[in-house]
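User: Batch of two.

Assistant: Item 1 of 2:
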Amino acid sequence: MEKVTDRRLNQRKTQTATQGADSAAVQNEEPGRKISTHFRSRHRERFGDEGPYKMTPKGAWAASDPDALLFFFRRLNLETCRLFCDLGSGDGLAVCCAALFTTAVGIEADPDLCREATANARSLSLPHPALFVCADYTRLRPHHADCLYLYPDKPPAELHRLVPPGWHGRLLIYGPHFPPRGFRCEQALRWERETLHLYRRLSHEEARNDHGRSGKP
């Protein structure tokens, strides 16, 4: 009788622990669903079926897929990064997703998008700071962040000038793109049709060798 009782108690403990883990997982997923729902609703209201797209002072802006970003950021353990910086942050979607994991900053040249991004972040009550700077990121030195994010509308040709050789952070590039000079791809992720590539900056010696092979100044 005692063995049967002990077995039932152990089964109940296991069931309770499993339910607790499932509940925690659901709670962790909930903020992500809130962000996804918020931005999908805003994009439908503003852009209809054509999807989020706008010409800015620095080129074309299009939004990433929020569910893809959340998947990528979880896979990459983004919480281990000290500061996430989105180069061309648009309406703040990537920054808001990143702020579930760590402090996030967006740099955006379009004043209207920058104001919209700030309003989006405030309405979502994010667990980490989400800040926005209205500026041209190519005129700044974003290497103080240890995670840079970019969804390029053209080849990211000047990134090697913004980030010095030996920078120990991670560069995340969303969507199809030409590999940036001075960086090495270390990981490629896919979620449905969406892709994200993780790059590391070459060391000083590697950068010199890369410079010699390219023959470019």
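Item 2 of 2:
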Amino acid sequence: MNNKKIVITIGREYGSGGHAIAELIAKQLDIPLYDRNILALASSETGIEENELLDGDERVINPFFEPYFANRYDFNTVSDKLYLTQAKIIREKASEGSCIFVGRCSDYVLADTEDCYHFFIWAPKAARIARIMKEEDIKSEAAAEKILKMIDRQRKSYYQLYTDRKWGSYIGKDMVINSSTLGIAGTAQLIIDFVNKVIN
């Protein structure tokens, strides 16, 4: 890759290996990766403890707790505050130089950003369940599927609350990729090759 600035966003189904793919891309291109570590930056911006922000990370906080957080921090919900703060951080980091973002509506936040490429990673349910069982040391397929459905539902609700797009859609994406076809390393290389082809 040449020295031209590139920004990559990766949306992903839970268990599709999106984070692992992003890690490989970041390592090979030697660029910063922003995923859950954005929470630490958001905590510094808002003064809210990182473990409390975690409740609103890529999920819509349970309405039962909204009055508590609204009274304590003077905003609508933790989800709202976190989205706005993360969006600000994402824009700032993207303006500073090459980097890669995982989730957090980053494709939508950076939709009009030059030299920014957007990808969504999915995989068949069976492949995702197998990956979740291995990575999370879960013995039951039923338990893994329950977690899969819960986290996908949270991500979908969060994404569709703060964007005008359907989660997982090809809209606004350069590529939608089945990670089970080429595997984690192969999918990472496919994205790298795509970006190199575009910028060179």
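The chain is about 55% helix and 10% strand.
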